[in-house]
Model the fold of this input.
Amino acid sequence: MNRIHIVLHEPEIPQNTGNIARTCAATGAALHLIRPLGFAIDDRKLKRAGLDYWHQLDIFYYDGMDDFFAQHPAADFYCFSTKAQRCYTEVAYPAEVYLMFGKETQGLPEEFLHAHPDRCVRIPMRQGLRSLNLSNSAAIAVYEVLRQQDFAGLKTAGELTQFAW
Done:
């Protein structure tokens, strides 16, 4: 099955995960959460950020990175990191892709990034800033993949018969 997957390694902030869940629901992407999580899944802030989209979300849980890769040994993945050399737009993403993001305070583990330098990409930003918000980064990544796929399965402005408002 061709699909975009967002993988969050040890997310810490419930609002970010909730916003990413909403992006997943709106785009048909699957959400994969690697424990430990910095919040309870029933956290009110998490649910509020995702609003009423939870029933339209495919969400999967893993007990660590090893568990994730044991269940997806052939995963075609890309790691988003401020330390990567290659820009995220320089990749031709496959139809089935796993977009990996690390925890808000530390990103993905250094040893994992060093083991997969050809799979690391970054989102450009001004010098001297630490990083973009996690949910914004995930949305940028998902929509680049969707753009490359001509927004397959999504309603675009060209498909609207009248103004949407």
